Amino acid sequence: MLSGGAPLEGEALVAAIQGVVTALPGYTEFCRHQNDIEDRVRSWAQCVEKHRYHYGGTKAKLMGKTEARPKSPNQNVLKAEDAQRRICEAVADLVAKDDLPSAITARRKAIQRYGISPTTLNKYRSLWHPAELDHTLEQQEENPPVETVPEVLSNQEEHTPTPNKLLDAPAAPPKQAGISDREGGGDFYTTRVKTKSAVLD
């Protein structure tokens, strides 16, 4: 147990636990399970083997499972999706019949006839409420989705970067900014100071 090597299992674990327990100080003076210590140790060893797993191992490995079970879908999510689907179907049916009222209360009552509760309608208001549903429909009619094709610059066109408002000097290296290293004795700092003063003049 306190030594290295493979984890103990079965009878080896029972023997190791019993050896530690009987070696503890006060065992012979205070322990009242001396006559049935082997049974007590065996039950603890079985409990540990069933409910614990070794350091570095996994519970699935202990239980003899090699594959993790796929998680079942959350019931709340399934109910929410079903409610949204039923509201959409009710609205689509009313639109197909040209019977979708424009007033809020009338529309709510018309959708409730499809077996949808008022609480569910309040929760998914964006699917049926005139202020939100009609607004989104109008936006879709006015602005149909347009596929945008990125512009490709030809070789003749030059890309001019916009200057950074936060920097007081060009962000480009001196040669790209049109400043030679020889101006001002070749020192970048003096070149930069000259460029800054020229910009300010």
Describe this structure in words.
The protein has 201 residues and is mainly α. Among the domains are: 10-62, no CATH class; 75-128. It contains 9 helices and no strands. It has helices at 10-23, 27-30, 37-51, 59-62, 75-96, 104-112, 118-123, 130-142, 188-200. Helix 1 (10-23) crosses helix 3. The mean pLDDT is 75.
Short summary:
Helix content is about 50%, strand content about 0%.
What's the topology here?
Blueprint: H1 10-23, H2 27-30, H3 37-51, H4 59-62, H5 75-96, H6 104-112, H7 118-123, H8 130-142, H9 188-200
Number of strands: 0
Q: Which structural class matches the secondary elements?
A: mainly alpha
User: Rough shape?
Assistant: elongated
Oligomeric state of the chains? single chain
* Cα distance spanning the termini: 82 Å
Which labels suit this protein?
single chain, 201 residues, mainly alpha, 9 helices, 0% strand, elongated
